[in-house]
Amino acid sequence: QLDVVTFGETMVLFNPEQMLPLEYNHKFTKQIGGAESNAVIGLQRLGHQTGWFSKLGDDPFGRYIHKFIRGEGVDTSRCLYTDEAPTGLFFKEKKSPTNMQVYYYRKNSAASLLSADDLDEAYIANAKMLHLTGITPAISESSRQAVFKAIEIAKKHQVKIVFDPNIRYTLWEQDEARDVLSQMAKEADIILPGFDEGEFITGKSTPEEIAECLSPNKDKIVIVKLGAEGAYYQNGTEQGYVIGFPAQVVDPVGAGDGFAAGVISGLLCNEPIAEAVRRGNAVGAIVVGTNGDVEGLPSKEEVERMLKGESDTRD
Ligand code: KDG
């Protein structure tokens, strides 16, 4: 049995070697990034069994992504290929340490052809948790349908749904995004919004109000990420703040996926919620120290050292 199954678009990332405007950058490092695969690669490194699938282009970039993720130990047996569209790409642009932007080349990509018919019900039914992000419903109508079909399957088989909004404002209209993300949040058991995302979805302006609005009956776990400050959590019986770890930020992209991996890992190990959130904070703080979306995801031992305050063992 897999602990966590996820699906969604993973792209080849071209990461510039120099801190320059993109048009003046001549050298790039080829890496990968995708919120869903980032999260399960993180979980795999923390010792869990996970599965990821997507529709990849039948091209060298598709094969590169597949091999990379499989190489991390993630089960990719349900991964599909198409020759009807190419694998999506994205580029980062770092003009200065605090000025970072992302350029997507993913419109009509292979992953956007993913549809509800591509889901293997038994595969999802057999997992403990289904991890979904708000990126998948934004990339195409058919992948949005796949998301809602997956939710139906998870509900039918009592698979817990973890929802990380991961809002990408460049991919869809705001009203449409709010509507779809609210529907996903209603169906989820565990919701992991960033503070701004929680504000966007609920219209509320404090972590407490956001959590209350997303789970008025307190039947869900809601964890509102507060960046460097840490996070606020609410479940059926407890709520509170967990302070973050000091971090040296080299590349903030992927921090939220690392946080999700840490929290889910803690919950899978039946840790008290505040401990699981602390684990999420630790993974997030470690991930931002590495230039890439997945390369810095830590091993279990590395996280334990951070949790014990042995920060000198870093780098
Ligand atoms: O959360 C990190 C992701 O943003 C990145 O890896 C790429 O999936 C991606 C996206 O849609 O931006």
Summarize the structure.
With 315 residues, the chain is α/β, with parallel strands linked by helices. 37% of the residues lie in helices and 22% in strands. The model has no long low-confidence stretch (mean pLDDT 96).
Which molecules other than protein and nucleic acid are bound? 2-keto-3-deoxygluconate
Task: Please give the largest β-sheet.
Answer: 8 strands, mixed
What are the segments in which pLDDT stays under 50 over at least 5 consecutive residues?
none
CATH fold group? UDP-N-acetylmuramoyl-L-alanine:D-glutamate ligase
- Alpha-beta classification: alpha/beta
CATH homologous superfamily classification: Ribokinase
Helix content: 25-40%
- CATH class equals Alpha Beta
In one word, what is the shape?
A: globular
CATH architecture: 3-Layer(aba) Sandwich
Strand content: 15-25%
Classify the oligomer.
single chain
Order the strands across the largest sheet as they lie in space: 4-1-9-10-11-12-13-14
Radius of gyration: 18 Å
Query: H/E series, N to C?
Result: EEEHEEHEEEHEHHEHEHHEEEHHH
- By DSSP, the count of extended strands is 14
Question: What's the total helix number?
Answer: 11
